[in-house]
Design goal:
globular; 10 strands; six-stranded mixed β-sheet; alpha/beta; four-stranded antiparallel β-sheet; 10 helices; Rossmann fold
């Protein structure tokens, strides 16, 4: 479905991604893990058209994906940014309206009600200014806003960032539900244990390169991953599959 092939991205003379390859089969959840500065957000920003690669190509359904953000959204790829970045001065309902700007009124209203059913707390807060929501509620709103365009692929950047463990579990339960409903997901997450537990397949980024890839079971048993990201503790794998 989505293929990143030999992508190199640079900020001036500094290469943030170097020859990265990644495949995202339709209907699966792919996790990308790595430490701060590994290039995870740069990868998502490049897929979504916010950054242009110096080298390499991104394909969607075998065709070159346009390297412009509005065209990427039109192709069915939506990014949920790190740090939520909701429109703080707009209400919950207005934020969702912004997410569904490409859809007609009837389709937008239908999707909005689906979002409210998935996130009941947002339904209760429809008229509340987004800046007054809790961190977990803002994360739900950010995901809900992304769903308003009915994406084929959703790019999630650090959805657990800054949230309490109880809220993190709730957010990841919802992310898994979104995947079960048919949306393909690319999840960037520093919480490697959780990322591996929910994904079908994962990639490990280090210094802008993919150094490892495999299923949850394969990576959780890898001594390098275990030592660097899992703290030597066993990881429960819920979504193992074969290689993409």
């Amino acid at each position: 479905m989505l293929e990143v092939r030999n992508i190199t991205v640079a900020y001036g003379k500094i290469e943030a991604l170097r020859g990265v390859n990644l495949k995202v089969p339709e209907g699966q959840m792919i996790s990308v893990i790595g430490s701060n500065g590994a290039g995870k957000t740069t990868l998502l920003n490049t897929i979504s058209g916010l950054l242009r690669p110096r080298n390499g190509v991104i394909y969607l359904d075998g065709k070159i994906l346009p390297s412009a953000a509005h065209l990427t959204v039109a192709a069915g790829i939506v990014q949920v940014p790190e740090g939520r970045k909701v429109f703080t001065t707009l209400t919950v309902d207005e934020n969702l309206t912004m997410g569904g700007y490409r859809a007609g009124r009837q389709e937008s209203n239908k999707t909005r009600e689906q979002v409210y059913r998935m996130f009941p707390i947002l339904n209760e807060r429809r008229g509340q200014t987004a800046g007054t929501l809790s961190g977990g509620e803002q994360q739900m709103l950010s995901i809900g806003r992304g769903l308003m365009s009915s994406p084929r692929i959703m790019l999630l950047d650090e959805p657990s960032l800054g949230l309490a463990p109880k809220i993190v579990k709730q957010i990841f339960d919802l992310i898994q539900e979104i995947n079960r409903r048919g949306t393909t997901l690319v999840l960037v997450e520093q919480n490697a244990r959780t990322a591996l537990a929910v994904a079908h397949y994962a990639y490990v980024l280090e210094n802008g390169r993919v150094i490892l890839e495999g299923t949850c079971s394969e990576l959780s048993k890898n001594p390098q991953v275990e030592a660097a990201y899992l703290g030597g503790l066993e990881t429960s794998c819920q979504a193992d599959s074969t290689s993409p």
